[in-house]
Amino acid sequence: MTVAAPPRSDARDWVGLVARLLLGGVLLVAGLLKITALGTSRTATRAYDLMPVDVANFIGTLLPMLEIVLGVLLIAGLLTRGAALLGGLLMLAFIGGITSAWARGLTIDCGCFGGGGSVGENQTKYLQEILRDAGLALCAAWLVVRPQSRWSLDRRWWG
C-alpha cells in the first residue's frame, strides 16, 4: 500500500500568504473606513473629475462594498485568483486616477482610506500613493499567477 505524501510547503506558500494578507488587509480596512461615510467616499470619487457626477457617486457608493468583499475573500484565501485579479485591477485603476490627478495639477486627497476631496498643494502624497498601490498590484499579480498559499480555504477545500 502506498501512502500519499503530504503536500510540500515551500517559501512561495509563505510569499502567497503575505501577499494575500497584505492586499486583503488593505482592501478590507479601506472599505470599512469608507463604508461608514459614503458621502465622503462619493466626494472623493468626484474630486478626480474623471466621470459624470452620477457615475462618480455610484462608484463612490459601490467601491467600499467591493473592497470589503475582496478583502474578506483574500484574507480567507477563498477564490484567491479571482479576488486577486479584481484587487489588482482596482490598484491599477487607482494608480491611473492618482496619476491623472497629479498630471492635471489637481490637489486632492486620494480618498483611499476615507476622506478625500480638495487639499492644500503641500498635502498631496501622489508619489507615495502610487508606490503603495504598485506594491499592492504586485501582490495581486503574484496571487493571480500563484494563488496557492498557507492557511487558505482554497487549499483546504479544493487541495
TrEMBL record:
Residues passing through the membrane, by range: 14-35, 55-76, 83-103
Membrane topology value: Multi-pass membrane protein
Record domain Methylamine utilisation protein MauE: where = 13-145
Task: Give UniProt keywords alphabetically.
Answer: Membrane, Transmembrane, Transmembrane helix
Pfam families in the record: MauE (PF07291)
Q: Does the keyword Chaperone apply?
A: no
What compartments host this protein?
Membrane
Q: What is this protein called?
A: MauE/DoxX family redox-associated membrane protein
